[in-house]
Every structure is written in C-alpha cells, then in structure tokens.
Amino acid sequence: FECFISMRYWTPMAAEVAKKVKAFNPDQIVLAPLYPQFSSTTTASSFRSWDQAALNAGLDKPTARICCYPEESGFVSALTKSVRAGIEKAAATGTPRVLFSAHGLPEKFVEAGDPYQNQVERTVAAVVAELGDEKLDYRICYQSRVGKLVWLGPYTDAEIILAGSDRVPLVVVPVAFVSEHSETLV
Fold first, then answer.
1. DSSP code, position 84
2. How far apart are CA 52 and CA 47, in angstroms?
3. Whole-model pTM?
4. Is 169 exposed, middle or buried (0-12, 13-18, 19+ CB in 10 A)?
5. Contacts of 161 (CB under 8 A, 6+ apart)
C-alpha cells in the first residue's frame, strides 16, 4: 500500500503524481477526494483532471473512486468533536453561534441538479444531531464567491458581521473540506 497525494489547484499536481504512480506500478488505484460533498466543480473536475493526467502518463490501472461521504460516521464524528471543542471554548464569552461555512457555488449549478448544497445540508444535519443540542444557534453559509453570478447564500462574511452586531461569539466550521488550507483559514 502506498499513498500519493495530488492537489487540484496546488502542487503536487495530478500530472506529477500520475508519473509517480506509474513508476510505483500499483495493482489498483483508489481516488479519495478531500471533498466530503460531491460537486461537478470539485470532485468531478478532480476526477477529470486525474483521468487526463493518467492518460498522458500512460497509466492504465483499475481505478476505484470514492464519490462523496457527507454523512459518513467517521467524518461526522471527527467534525462533531472539533465543533464541540470550539463551542466549549467560545462559551467562555457567551452562547456561541456556529457558522458551518462551505465553499460557495453558483446557484445555477444547484438548479441544474448538482447535489452539493443538499449534501452540505446533510453533513450539517448529521453534526447537529450528533451534538444533541436542541438550542444550538447555527447557520449554514458559503464563502469564496467570485464574478457576477448569483452564488449560494447566505455569505459567510455577512454572517460574521451579523454575529458581531448580535454580539455573540462565533465558531466557524469549514464543513466542505477535510483539512485546513489557505481558503478555510482566510
């Protein structure tokens, strides 16, 4: 067993990794995106990028794909654990509001059938259920919109401003990635 990491928008890129995988000569390849919720703009585009890189590298091995896992118990439990810790820390200054912040997506993709928003909502529902706090003040919001299209909302920056005017402490949870990176940290 060997693990190779390929990034979609940063190094190591798929082309570089496909060459390394070919040199390793595995029996099978398993693609496991770090996006828990499926979108044509993330998971599907990453799969397409890998397919092209593998083709260019002459890599022809059986390939399994993990599509999405918005309610997978291990993912939900890990997320719940970190949310609970954030709530406990923020509670020192008041009753916190939890913002489940997901990467934005133009609304036209959802209207065309992209399951992303629904899967984000399912992830949040699973975490909230596992937290077991019926009075939890939480919201789902979206970040990283660009251009003139209408994007999913409400927007994270507006929710942060609202929490400030409501004078409540915040716990911001990047719900659409399994690891921190520049986008979730900003």
1. H
2. 9
3. 0.91
4. middle
5. none
* Backbone phi, psi, residue 63, to 5°: -130, 125
Round to whole Å and give the CA distance between 87 and 79: 12
Q: Kindly give the confidence (pLDDT) of every residue in the chain, 186 residues in length, as a single tens digit, with 9 standing for 90 and above.
A: 788 888 777 788 999 999 999 999 999 999 999 899 999 999 999 999 999 999 999 999 999 999 999 999 999 999 999 999 999 999 999 999 999 999 999 999 999 999 999 999 999 999 999 999 999 999 999 998 888 999 999 999 999 999 999 999 999 999 998 876 555 555
Q: What is the DSSP letter of 91?
A: G
CA triplet 15, 17, 34: central angle to 5 degrees?
Answer: 105
d(CA 90, CA 95): 7
CA–CA gap between residue 14 and residue 23 (Å, rounded): 14
Amino acid at site 73: S
Q: Residue 176: exposed, middle, or buried by beta-carbon count in 10 A (0-12, 13-18, 19+)?
A: buried
Using N-to-C axis directions, what is the helix angle for 14-24 and 43-57, rounded to 10°?
Answer: 50
What lies within 8 Å, CB to CB, of 153 at 6+ separation is 141, 142
Rg over CA atoms, the chain: 19
